[in-house]
Amino acid sequence: MHYLRSIFFVIALATYTGLAQAQPSQSDRYAAQFQDILDQHQMKGTILVFDVQQDRYFSNDFEWASQGFLPASTFKIPNTLIALETGVVVNDANTVLPWDGKKRYSKAWEKDLSLKDAFRLSCVPCYQEIAGKIGLLRMRQFLQQFSYTNMDVRDETLQHFWLVGASKISAFQQVAFLRNFYSRHIKLSDHTYDTMRQILEIESTANYSLSGKTGWSTDHGDNGWFVGYLRRGEAMYYFAANIEPKDAQKADEFLAGREKAVRQALQVLGAFEERK
């Protein structure tokens, strides 16, 4: 079973991460609940959550969380950071990215979009243009600075390496990157950090704030992400879910289920109450 395999694997993970080792009984319970959530949505994969206060990871499948997959639209996070830091995109989240009038895959992309809207709507051509303006040298330099490794960045792949091909990132690496970003451990301006936090935020209430980005690649079959973080008072949870539909014919349900599954997992951990 997935969750029994996960308990065995967490021992090895704790050795090199330096994180506190979870008690088997509690880890077993959360692993089973995470797996039940994915089963409920007819999905397979991993939900990985790092609880900062407990200094501890939770997942239904740590092995899956260690495997690399195309970052897809989750790469819009580093892509946006680089664009802001280099001045490829000036000003702030409301900076307008003009539409060139050409037909696009999605009607929602066929208009001028603010940077925040382009991010939220996952406007592929918008970010392909941004990547082209950043250029190969700067893209490589910043990805090295971010420790965002295993990206196949070459002249011929510059505008699509996160969508198709050999680039890979794991759920553990996604969480590590997000932790470095939120803690401002990467050498970036305060303006870049502040703007990116604003762009990433999905919702904010009196009790918590939730930030994140979905992603979907089809180059090696349907594979989806939902990565981000949730803050509730002094508590902080980073998450990275990498999941696939059990039935390839139900892609619409799978796309909606990514975020729903993570929300349910966070509720299991007591991160926040279910929305009414």
UniProtKB/TrEMBL annotation:
It comes from the Bacteria. Keywords: Antibiotic resistance, Hydrolase, Signal. PROSITE patterns: BETA_LACTAMASE_D. It is an enzyme of class 3 (hydrolase). Residues 63-251 form the Penicillin-binding protein transpeptidase domain. InterPro entries: Beta-lactam/transpept, Beta-lactam/transpept-like, Beta-lactam_class-D_AS, PCN-bd_Tpept. Residues 1-22 form the signal peptide. It holds the Pfam family Transpeptidase. Its EC number is 3.5.2.6. It catalyses: a beta-lactam + H2O = a substituted beta-amino acid. Belongs to the class-D beta-lactamase family. PANTHER family: BETA-LACTAMASE YBXI-RELATED, PEPTIDOGLYCAN D,D-TRANSPEPTIDASE. This is Beta-lactamase. It comes from Sphingobacterium populi.
